[in-house]
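=== Structure Prediction Worksheet ===
Name of assembly: unnamed complex
Input type: mixed (protein and possibly other molecules)
Chain count: two
Listed entries:
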Amino acid sequence: MSRWVLGEFRSPERMVEAARALRASGFLRLDAHTPYPVEDVDAVLGLPASRLPLLALLAGVGGAVGAYVVQWFTQAVDWPLNVGGRPLHSGPAFIPVTFESAVLAAAGAIFLGVIVACGLPRVTHPFLDQEAFRSASIDGFWLAVAVDGSEGVDAAEGALRQFGAAVVLAVEGRR
Amino acid sequence: MSEPLPLAPVTADPLVVHPLLEERRPDAQLGEALLRPVLTAPGMGWWALVGVCAALSVLLAVAITITFVTGVGTWGNNIPVAWAFGITNFVWWIGIGHAGTLISAILLLFGMKWRNSVNRMAEAMTLFALVCAALFPLLHLGRPWKFYYLVPYPSSLRMWPQFRSPLTWDVVAITTYLTVSVLFWYLGLLPDLATARDTAKQPWRRRVWGLLSLGWRGSARHWRHWRTGYLLLAGLATPLVVSVHTIVSFDFAVAQLPGWHSTVFPPYFVAGAIFSGLAMVLSLLIPARRALHLHAVVTQAHLDALARLLLVSGLFVAYGYVQEHFFGWYSGSPYEMHVMNILRTGPYAPAFWTVFACNVLVPQLFWSARLRTQPVVLWCAALLVNVGMWLERFIIIVSPLSEDFLPSSWRHYAPTWVDLSLLSGTVGLFGLGFLLFLRFLPPVPISEVKELQHELEASEAFAHDVSVRQGGAR
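=== Predicted Assembly ===
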C-alpha cells in the first residue's frame, strides 16, 4: 500500500514554484499532473530526458535490415525469378520497401514505447478515484508527493499548504 | 518631444494580422466549449448529413458486392484502359490524406502554432481518406480475396511476392502510412480523451472515455515521453508522406507508356497530393467551424494560412503541368507529343482545360489578402480544386492508356454505373467517418489549445512589460 499527498495549484507557474520549494525542503519523490505539458517541470523534478529516440533508432534500423534481408532471401535465394533480365539481387528496387519498413518498425516502437514507459494502460489508478483530481486534465495543476506512514502524510500536507496549494488530498492505494 | 510616444501594441508579433485565438477564456470553459460537440446532442443537420452519407455507403456496399460476385467486368475498364476509375480514385484519395500529415507532422516540426486548432480534424480526414484509398487497389485486383498473396508469408505455394514491382511497394507504403497515421492520431488523442473522461457527467461516458484514454493522468513523466514520442512520430511521418506518393507515382513512372515514363512524376504527384488534401481540409473545416461554433479557435488566421498553402502548392502543381508539357515536346518522341496534344486539343481537352481552370487559375484568387479570409470564397475554391484534382488524376491515367503506340489498339473509356457508385460511395463513407468523428471524439486538440493560450498570454504579458518599461524610462 503506497501513500501520496496531492496538492492542487491554480496556475502552472505557482505549481513549478511550489515543486522547487518542496524539493528544497527535502520532498524528493514528486510528480506533477497537468492538463498540458508545463515548461521547466522536468528540470525541477529532476527527470532525465526520455530514451525513446534510441529505441526508435534501433527499431528503425532493425526494420530496415529485416525488410532488406527478406527481399534478398525471397528474390535471390529462395525463389530466383528472372524478370526482364534484371539482377536477382536488385538493390535499388528494394529501397522503397526497406524505407517503409524502417518507418513502420520505428513508429510502432515509439507508440508502444510511450505506452509502456507511461505505465499505461492503467485505468484504475488510485488518483483517478478522487473526484477533485478530475481537474488535473481540465484546469488544475497538481503536485503528488509520495510519502511513508502517517507522519509523512502530515508533513507533506503541511508543506503543500504552506507553498500555496488550494486543495490538499491524502490518497492511498496500490502503486 | 512634448508628446509621449504611444505604447507598443500588446501583441507578441506586430506582423501578425489575425489572432490565433479570438478570445482568452479560463481553461475549464475553453475545454468545455471544445468538448461541446461530443457532450451535447447533435442537431438535425448532423442527422441529415449522416443519412445522406449512410445511403451513399450502402450504395458502395452494393457496388462492392456486384464487383465481388460478377467481377471487374462490371466496370468500364477495357484493354488498353485497364486502370481507369479504380486507380484514379485510389490516387485521388491517398493524395487527400497527405495534407492531414502535412498539417499534423510537418507544421509541428516547423513550430507553426496555428496547426494546433486544426490538426485533429486534418488527421481524421487523412485516416478516412486512406481507408477509401485502400479499397480501390484491393477491388482492382480482380480477385480481392487473394490479396494476401502480396504479403511475404511462408506458404505451401513456395512462392514469394515480386519485390521489384511497384505493386508490392504500394502495399507496404499504404500499410505503413495507414498504421503510422492511426498511431500518431491516437497518441495525440490520449490527453484529450482524458479531458473528455474528466469533463463528462454520465458514468457510461466516463467509463468509455476512461478505457479509451488508457488511464492517462497527465503526469510529468507521461508528458515527457509523450512529447518526445509525438515529435519523433512527426519526424518519421514527414519523410513517410513524401515517400508514399512518390511510390504511388512510381506505379506510373516505372512503366514505359508515353506520358507516364517521366522523372518529374514523384515531385509532381507529391505537390498535387498536398494541394488536393489542403482543398479537402478547407472543404471540411469551413462548414465544421460554422456548425460547431469554433470561430474562437479556428480563426481567420487559420483560413489565411491554409489559403496561402493552397496557393503555394497550387503553384507547384502549375509548374508540374508546365514541365509535363515541356518534356512531352522536348522529348521529340511522336508518342509523347501525341499524348500531350490530345490533352490540349483532342478528346481530353474539355477535361484538361477544366483542370487548368480549377487548379491553376482558381488558386490565384488567394494573392488577395481579403479573399483569403472569406470562408465562402475559400470553400467554393476548395471544392473546385477537389474536382480539378480528381479530373487531373483521371486524365493522367486514362489519356496515355487510351491512345498509346499503335493506333489500331486505341480505345476510349466510359465509366459504368458501378464505377460511379464506387466513387460516390467512397465519398459517402468518408463523410460518414468524418461526421461520426466530429460527434464522438474531441474535434479540436484541447490540451494543445490550452497550452497555446498559456503561451500567448505569457508572450503578451512580456510584451506589455517591455512597453511599460520603455514608456516608464522616457
